Amino acid sequence: MDEVKAVEIAAEKGLNMDDAVQYASAISSNVDSIVSFDKHFNGLEISRLEPHPTA
User: Fold this and answer.
1) Overall number of domains in the chain
2) C-alpha distance across the termini of the chain, in Å
3) Which segments of the chain are extended strands (E)?
4) CB-based burial label for 19 (10 Å; 0-12, 13-18, 19+)
5) Helix, strand, coil % in the chain, rounded to nearest 5
6) Which residue in 24, 45, 21 sits closest to 33, CA to CA?
7) Are 2 and 12 in contact, with CB atoms under 8 Å apart?
8) Is residue 17 domain-resident?
9) Whole-angstrom distance, CA of residue 43 vs CA of residue 34
10) Is the pTM of this model over 0.70?
11) Does the residue 54 lie in any domain?
12) In which domain, by residue range, is 36 found?
């Protein structure tokens, strides 16, 4: 994973570094969605799926 890309994403998208690293990894892995409770992933190029609670 390119840390420089994560820093750029953090600045461009307003994400904190942890989320920017996740997002950069998702982009480099060509995934369709990110599974997360974090709503700040909404509106980005990769869609966010909310996990379902398990019983």
Assistant:
1) 1
2) 34
3) 33-35, 47-49
4) buried
5) 45, 10, 40
6) 45
7) no
8) yes
9) 12
10) yes
11) no
12) 3-49
